[in-house]
Amino acid sequence: MNDALTKIKHELGTDAVILNSKQIKTGGLFGLFKKTQIEVIAALDEHPISEVKAKQQAEVTVTKKEQPIFNTDVLSSDEQVLEEIKQLRRLVSSKTFQGNNSFSHPFDVLFHYLVEQGVHSSIAEEIVTKVEEDNSGKLNEQQLFEKADSFLTDRIDSFVADVSNTNKKILQFVGPTGVGKTTTIAKVAAKMMLEHKKQIAFITTDTYRIAAIEQLKTYAKILDVPLEVVYSNDDYEAALEKFSQYDHIFVDTAGRNYLETNYVHELKHMIQLAKGDSITFLVLSLTAKTSDNDVIYHIFKDVGIEHVILTKADETTTYGTILNLCLGEGANVAYIANGQDVPDDVVEGSPEYITNLILSRYRHA
Length: 365
Hints:
11 strands, alpha/beta, globular, Rossmann fold, 8-stranded mixed β-sheet
């Protein structure tokens, strides 16, 4: 750390501020003999914080020596210094992501935060522009948070789907592999059984993975509901007829590579067999890359989906995909899954819940 501070002082001068430091591993052979190093990020404020116009950022990596990780001589507990560091980090970040936008402070911080959450820059710019237009007076960050919270809640309201009391008989779930589709089906089914006293049956067309069949069989046994495994469209139609007296039939489709054209074509044909008395849900994971979710949505949109269910909300801290789907694609969010417990860890996608997810870290940014 002392070597890092020396280099920072040499390159940026004595006014440099330490923004972050962490240990990293480099080099080595077959995962062995890696060197422990210290990575330090520092920035230089060329003007007073109230007039920040330009900054430099430097990363310095040095080999760790036999010294404490933190040098207590250079640390300060003074609250004013810590607040200045916090503000500087925000300003450096906001300028990095702001691009050609010219939002005034603190609107620039909100813009950066949304982009960092994975919101497409065009959507983030639209949101911040609207909030800025509606609030021309000077706002502190807490007031801006409250305004953004109110705006997003109102904006998302029309993209939330309440399907808990749907009169559609067939609920079909589609999506790529690894998003937790089967567990989500069990959660929604159990929720409808317990809260709305519905009679439920299961159908699975996922015959490509034995584990998927066994998982749904386990849920069917726990919930005490019938299950049919189908291998063809004829089997599927027969199973639908068999369960025609039930309130809802939950259909678990095969989770395969969504880039396979044949798979998507077969899926589209199967879904059309139940058209008119069905709802089709696309299940996506919030831990997936935003760009991947964009592609998946467009591919499955052609299949004929009505609503989106988002999973693994508890395994990430970035929720921009929700805004991209709602405001960018016009998708309706039905449920958000936030854990492994059945049926507790699934909630209906209310505007307040979604807004809270997206802005939850803004208070601490």
